[in-house]
């Protein structure tokens, strides 16, 4: 790999989305309907942007969405399970079916879906795709002529394909790396779609450090102004520091008393870390082709900062699942261990399921999470989800009564995912299943319910 190798830069895309929004706000100042960071999203996307409560719909602002304080928890599984060919508008319209976990503006909850909503908003304002807007308004002015907006498009271009990096995940069971599928989601856009290189990102960082165009001085100030206090950093790979905040597309930390702006990015097989310390004219862009690369990246850039400041506290390193439900390293947990962890107090003897197993098969649908078709295969209920954003399989193992253990996994020829969820079936008075619930969003404290719509 070299400095011009092309990586999926994942959530570091978010800073560009916030920057594009700042340009749109600047453009609107001389119009009859100027925009501001306090503009409610629904005032522009009247039909498309609807949240689970009327209050949240009418009061969620551009700033709320870009600073992860809307009250909507991650709901990343509704991205993983989605049809990769769905439109951005369709993805945004599905937000109305997602329950809110928090009161608005009270809790930092990292949320890719809200950045997709802002992407849709920008496309309506600009009258073109977000990729075109970023190219014309940010990348071209900065000379970033080797930056792109779709891993799939880059992989299909013979002139670019040789430089496109493939991602891998370490499998501790076999002591080998597993190749990961490429990012493939039409609607991901401003939440994490960019493909670029370390060399290209230096041009972006230089503009941020010295506050040059194409952003206005006001735009630079706004995107770096802290908006949300982060009270729990246990699940985030972070630089050392006593306080952590979030601006618009940037985390904010204090390093030896100086503001440090940074953001990580990950997708199965990719670990990205970008940031800058304006007071020292220092910036870093590090891109690795395994999610765990972020641990080394934090250690490297904090070491370099310490060379300027003198030794400081060591970095706090732990997983960051908000960007993807996958583990960085393939888990070695067995199915029996998972059942004991998820169901620690099962009755003895186990209660049998009330219906013959074939009667649990059928198609189950959630309006935002999509459909799951369960079929009986080798005496297990299984769903083929290989056509989704993250291609995978879903199998059910009986635990007790109507409770099952759901294993969401990829054959190692496809990828490395292996995650267990609690699952429960509802059985109606007519002795047939009516729904299946999966614990896909723990912040809600309840299962995501897929209603049965038919047999197979």
Automatic annotation (TrEMBL):
Domain Peptidase S12 Pab87-related C-terminal: 347-452
Signal peptide limits: none
Residue ranges occupied by any Beta-lactamase-related domain in the UniProt entry: 1-296
UniProt cross-references to InterPro entries, sorted A to Z: AmpC-like (IPR050491), Beta-lactam-related (IPR001466), Beta-lactam/transpept-like (IPR012338), Peptidase_S12_Pab87-rel_C (IPR021860)
UniProt superkingdom: Eukaryota
Similarity comment text for this entry: Belongs to the peptidase S12 family.
Descriptive protein name: Beta-lactamase/transpeptidase-like protein
Organism: Penicillium olsonii
């Amino acid at each position: 790999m070299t400095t011009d190798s092309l990586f999926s830069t994942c959530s570091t895309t978010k800073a560009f989305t916030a920057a594009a929004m700042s340009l749109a706000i600047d453009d609107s100042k001389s119009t009859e309907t100027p925009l501001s960071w306090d503009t409610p999203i629904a005032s522009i996307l009247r039909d498309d942007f609807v949240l689970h409560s009327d209050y949240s719909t009418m009061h969620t602002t551009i700033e709320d969405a870009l600073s992860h304080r809307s009250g909507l928890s991650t709901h990343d599984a509704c991205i993983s399970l989605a049809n990769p060919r769905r439109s951005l508008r369709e993805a945004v319209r599905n937000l109305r079916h997602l329950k809110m976990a928090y009161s608005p503006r009270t809790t930092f909850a990292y949320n890719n879906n809200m950045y997709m909503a802002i992407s849709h908003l920008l496309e309506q304002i600009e009258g073109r795709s977000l990729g075109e807007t970023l190219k014309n308004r940010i990348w071209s002015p900065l000379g970033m002529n080797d930056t792109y907006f779709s891993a799939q498009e880059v992989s299909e271009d013979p002139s670019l394909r040789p430089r496109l990096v493939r991602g891998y995940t370490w499998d501790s069971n076999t002591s080998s790396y597993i190749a990961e599928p490429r990012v493939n989601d039409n609607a991901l856009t401003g939440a994490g779609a960019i493909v670029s290189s370390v060399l290209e990102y230096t041009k972006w960082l230089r503009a941020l450090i010295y506050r040059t165009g194409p952003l206005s001085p006001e735009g630079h100030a706004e995107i770096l102004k802290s908006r949300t206090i982060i009270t729990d950093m246990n699940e985030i790979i972070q630089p050392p520091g006593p306080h952590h905040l979030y601006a618009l597309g940037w985390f904010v930390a204090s390093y030896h008393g100086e503001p440090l702006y940074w953001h990580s990015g990950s997708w199965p097989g990719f670990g990205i870390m970008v940031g800058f310390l304006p007071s020292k004219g220092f910036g870093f862009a590090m891109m690795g082709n395994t999610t765990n690369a972020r641990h080394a990246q934090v250690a490297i850039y904090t070491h370099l900062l310490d060379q300027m400041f003198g030794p400081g506290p060591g970095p706090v390193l732990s997983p960051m699942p908000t960007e993807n439900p996958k583990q960085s390293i393939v888990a070695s947990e067995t199915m029996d261990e998972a059942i004991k962890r998820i169901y620690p107090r099962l009755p003895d003897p186990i209660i049998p399921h009330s219906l013959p197993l074939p009667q649990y098969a059928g198609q189950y649908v959630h309006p935002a999470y999509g459909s799951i078709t369960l079929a009986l295969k080798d005496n297990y209920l299984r769903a083929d989800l290989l056509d989704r954003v993250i291609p995978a399989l879903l199998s059910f193992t009986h635990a007790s009564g109507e409770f099952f253990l759901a294993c969401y996994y990829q054959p190692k020829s496809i990828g490395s995912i292996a995650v267990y969820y609690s699952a429960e079936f509802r059985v109606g008075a007519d002795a047939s299943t009516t729904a299946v619930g999966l614990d896909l969003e723990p912040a809600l404290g309840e299962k995501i319910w897929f209603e049965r719509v038919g047999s197979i």
